[in-house]
């Protein structure tokens, strides 16, 4: 009480007390906003839960939502890895199946070849061969006649058998009627063995060979670009199916492992030859690659647009047969369908592909290669 009474009388002391009180009030007012900012509450935009977020932060997501997003991304990556491992497992199963099947097929073919070589010809065939090789006729006496038959000269000194083989008939009407096949059946077959294709069973990087006719011209770059040392495109201008059969043994190496062979042929001969002759050549090509240990895929003959009704009719017949034949002999079949009948994909002649059509063909070949290798 005495201090209060003394202070009331001294104006200097009163002024000092007022300043101290004012300073305390100002300090209290400045501290309150900072404490309020520390306990600022905001809501998450995804889960709508409350979280403590600093005032200057613009991110309204909470820690739990960030963790959930990280987990979802990890789950997506795991799913992709599982799909990749499944595809690898399927490829390994297919390779194991081929590695177990091919030796049995080769052994069966060798047994059949040995049986055919050991089985003698029928007696009627041997008698016929003796008569043809005799060169002249003799007189056979009647039963019970004791007279010695006189050997009369042959009415003709010309040989009764043909020493020369028939020429190969191509591009003629007789081939459509099967005349060439009839002549070849009557002639003895040559003793030389047919060429065969063999590949290795030691696992290594696979090679890809794309062989065909004029359609492949200009598609070499996109097909061989990833790995030119293991990708090869063989374009034979104007080639027929039998030309592929003659060229193929020189392209396959004995060290190739599970070779991928894609054949695109037929468009250069479908106009000139009959479907029957084309099918016969495809069968010969199939016998060449059968049991070789390669993955063989035959592509269909592309259909063309315009007034080529006869060409499209033959193309449809060959493609329909080729699909069933490939399914029967476990060959792959890739169908172009009617994609090249669209405008702008053919050249001015209406048969060959334009630059745009070649790009589409190369894109299809690359997609087929990736699916087969993966």
What does this structure look like?
The chain has 374 residues and is of the alpha/beta class. It is built from eleven helices and seven strands. It has helices spanning 2-9, 11-38, 63-118, 123-134, 173-176, 179-186, 220-224, 241-247, 275-289, 309-328, 355-373; strands spanning 41-43, 50-52, 208-212, 231-235, 260-264, 295-299, 332-334. The strands form two sheets. A five-stranded parallel sheet has the order 4-3-5-6-7, with helices on both faces. Strands 1-2 form a two-stranded antiparallel sheet. Helix 8 runs parallel beside helix 9 and helix 9 (275-289) packs parallel to helix 10. It is extended, with a radius of gyration of 44 Å. The relative contact order is 0.07.
Summarize the structure.
This protein has 374 residues and is of the alpha/beta class.
Which key features would you list for this structure?
two-stranded antiparallel sheet; alpha/beta; 5-stranded parallel sheet; 7 strands; 11 helices; 374 residues; disordered N terminus; single chain
Secondary-structure map:
Blueprint: H1 2-9, H2 11-38, E1 41-43, E2 50-52, H3 63-118, H4 123-134, H5 173-176, H6 179-186, E3 208-212, H7 220-224, E4 231-235, H8 241-247, E5 260-264, H9 275-289, E6 295-299, H10 309-328, E7 332-334, H11 355-373
Parallel strand pairs: 3-4, 3-5, 5-6, 6-7
Antiparallel strand pairs: 1-2
Helix pairs in contact: 8-9, 9-10
Strand order of the largest sheet: 4-3-5-6-7
- The number of distinct β-strands equals 7
The portion of residues assigned to helices is 40-55%
- State the major sheet: 5 strands, parallel
């Amino acid at each position: 009480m005495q201090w209060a009474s003394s202070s009331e009388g001294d104006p200097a002391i009163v002024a000092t007390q007022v300043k101290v009180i004012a300073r305390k009030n100002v300090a209290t007012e400045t501290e309150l906003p900072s404490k309020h900012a520390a306990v600022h509450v905001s809501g998450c935009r995804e889960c709508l839960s409350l979280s403590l977020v600093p005032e200057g932060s613009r991110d309204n997501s909470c820690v739990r939502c960030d963790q959930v997003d990280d987990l979802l991304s990890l789950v997506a990556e795991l799913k992709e890895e599982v799909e990749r491992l499944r595809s690898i497992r399927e490829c390994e199963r297919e390779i194991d199946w081929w590695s177990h099947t091919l030796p049995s097929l080769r052994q069966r073919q060798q047994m059949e070849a040995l049986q055919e070589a050991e089985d003698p010809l029928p007696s009627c065939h041997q008698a016929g061969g003796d008569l043809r090789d005799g060169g002249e006729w003799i007189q056979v006496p009647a039963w019970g006649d004791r007279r010695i038959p006189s050997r009369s000269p042959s009415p003709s000194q010309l040989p009764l058998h043909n020493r020369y083989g028939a020429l190969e008939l191509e591009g003629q009407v007789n081939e459509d009627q099967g005349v060439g096949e009839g002549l070849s059946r009557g002639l003895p077959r040559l003793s030389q063995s047919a060429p065969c294709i063999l590949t290795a069973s030691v696992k290594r990087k696979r090679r890809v060979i794309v062989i065909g006719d004029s359609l492949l011209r200009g598609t070499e770059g996109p097909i061989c670009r990833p790995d030119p040392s293991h990708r090869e495109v063989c374009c034979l201008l104007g080639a027929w199916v039998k030309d592929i059969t003659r060229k193929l043994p020189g392209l396959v190496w004995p060290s190739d492992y599970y070779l991928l062979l894609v054949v695109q042929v037929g468009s250069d001969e479908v106009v000139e030859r009959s479907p029957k002759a084309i099918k016969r050549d495809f069968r010969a090509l199939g016998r060449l690659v059968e049991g070789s240990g390669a993955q063989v895929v035959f592509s269909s003959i592309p259909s063309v647009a315009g007034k080529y009704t006869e060409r499209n009719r033959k193309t449809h017949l060959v493609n329909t047969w080729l699909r069933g034949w490939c399914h029967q002999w476990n060959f792959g079949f890739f169908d172009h369908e009617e994609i090249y009948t669209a405008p702008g994909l053919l050249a001015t002649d209406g048969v060959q592909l334009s630059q745009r059509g070649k790009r589409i063909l190369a894109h299809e070949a690359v997609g087929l290669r990736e699916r087969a290798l993966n």
